[in-house]
Amino acid sequence: MSLKKTFAAVVLSTSLVLGGSIAAMATETTSTPVSAPAVSPTPKPRPWQEYKEAMTVFKTAMTQFKADRITFEAAMTAHRTAMTAYFTARKPINDAFKASVDSARATLKAALEAATTNEQKTAAYNAMKAAVATATATREAAVKALGPVPVKPVKPAKPVRPTAPPKPVKPTPAPTVSPN
Questions:
Q1: How many domains is the chain built from?
Q2: Are 90 and 143 within 8 A, CB to CB?
């Protein structure tokens, strides 16, 4: 009995749901234009066509990279020359600083050997600190007057080669068992 009632309920609910929409469709007098599926004007390129286009772009980028690399090598040669000149100009500044600090150390050593009281030793250390501070300030001013360190040119980035699409795999026939 329950199966009959369930079947009747399903039929009744289906007719109510579909019956109203069918009646609504029957009363509708105007028809809406049905649009056809949009067809793209160009067919979708195949993977190999995309790969060939990517290779063309890659070859162009590679040609540009080679030109940029030649420019980079020339800029690096100029940079090396500028760095050599910069450090050649900076060497006397550093040598003068080193000589000043060595002189201050020698003076400190002599003052400490001659000192008999703690006040004399403290005065010798303070004189050493003042001499090193003066030498440091002189060196920093000279380096600042020398100008900034030459900036290294940026190495061009090598373009990435596109990967080829995988080749289609042919299905292999199933092995057959030969009778012995």
A1: 1
A2: yes
Q: Where are the alpha helices (DSSP H) in 28-115?
A: 47-114
* Both structure tokens of 44: 């979708």
Residue 55 lies in a domain: yes
Residue spans of alpha helices (H) in 115-147: 118-146
77 found inside a domain? yes
Q: How many residues make up the chain in this entry?
A: 180
C-alpha distances in Å from residue 155, one per residue of 64, 82, 135, 151:
13, 17, 38, 12
**Backbone torsion region of residue 176, taken as left when φ is above 0, otherwise alpha when ψ lies between -120 and 50, otherwise beta:** beta
Its pTM surpasses 0.90: no
Asked if the structure places residue 11 within a domain, the reply is: no
Is residue 109 domain-resident? yes
Q: Which domain, by its residues, includes 121? A: 49-144
Q: In tens digits, what is the pLDDT along the chain, a chain of 180 residues? A: 576 777 666 666 666 666 655 555 555 555 555 555 555 566 665 778 888 898 999 999 999 999 999 999 999 999 999 999 999 999 999 999 999 999 999 999 999 999 999 999 999 999 999 999 999 999 999 999 999 999 999 999 999 988 888 777 777 877 777 776
Tokens of 121: 């030793």
